[in-house]
Amino acid sequence: MRYEASVMAAVRPYDTCKQRESESGSSRNQELGARNSVSRFLRLQAHVRRRRPLEWPLSTPVHAMHPPKGHRLVTNDTFLRALLRQPTDHTPIWLMRQAGRYLPEYNATRKRAGSFLTLCKTPELACEVTLQPLERYPLDAAILFSDILTVPDAMGLGLYFAEGEGPKFSNPVRDEAAVRKLAVPDPNTELRYVMDGVSTIRRALNGRVPLIGFSGSPWTLACYMVEGGGSDDFRLVKGMMYKRPDLMHTMLAIAADSVRDYLNAQIEAGAQAVMIFDTWGGILPDGHYQKFSLGYIRRVLEGLHLEREERAPDGTVSTVRVPSIVFTKGGGLWLEDIAAIGCDAVGLDWTVNLGQARARIGSRVALQGNLDPMVLMADPGQIQGEAIKTLESYGVPQDGQGHIFNLGHGISQYTPPESVTALVEAVHRYSREQRRRGASASTL
Q: Among 35, 130, 260, 324, which is least packed by CB within 10 angstroms?
């Protein structure tokens, strides 16, 4: 009973919110619908408490029902289908930073590597840590283990990691002379270790789930390049933007072309989707965001080769579509602008109302997100209740819509590993129940 009570306690604020949405009699139906949804979900959880094995892999692969062109090399292509707004039998889930310090096996591999950069730059070790979360959890995608700052490091800025301080650059870019020295690196030479990592991971996955490649956005890279590391106020990079916008645009153009080439090389090496992390876009005011961040993300997307050919084991060659995701932390104000630049999916942080985001842009792009990472510090029943609320906020995807469950930012290093078990289990089981009902409680 404690488990059921904790889930109902977590869902109760959702019910109260739904009741207040309308003064009409329909609000009572919505509340009852939400409670009934939870009750049905709890009946499913009885199987879990009896230690029933998780249903994985799917008994009937989704692609066997409606195979999208080029996805037949992936056993579980639910993530790719959702990105392309195609039907799925459950909501796919992966987590930003899913391979990281919250996992004891990651820490053991990191210790063996000797340093974070060695871990990133050794393809076999990068492959090992990429696969670690997939051995623990039935996640629907893998993401390349690397760092967004590999690109400026390849430009000669001298990346290093100070103990307890995070990433630093020995040669920050703070004046015109430094900007003029910047050049677009060749990803197949200076960043060869990343491409080797991608191809190594693809071979190790053997078609189990798709592999996501990624890069930081041009603006986010520029923030680190000018500041020389992390920052509390970004006064140096924003000062350059206001004082010398010409220099900033020059730097951003070089960064954008570097990101374009970097992602294209990852795609060529085998990445099956790509994501652009615009971590610091949200620090910009309206107008400046469009000019100094979003405009250069658009430049990257316009230069990506989002189709490639892959050879199947039987020797046949098929054309594969490579979807793209753009995530701006703090970008809730600009969802329509982001959706208009040509990406397949828009990532949302935890401050955005997912249902409202669906109403705003859900017919144009898939949505990814957006559970608060700190929810994973709660008890398992509470975590699952919050997962239910997120799924209900989006509702059941209709034709031409897609949702990928994720956190609203990277997972904390302090997250108990068993919390991720509770989350993944809830997302898979409840989203299947949603689809069996044919409509979410929010639309009853």
A: 35
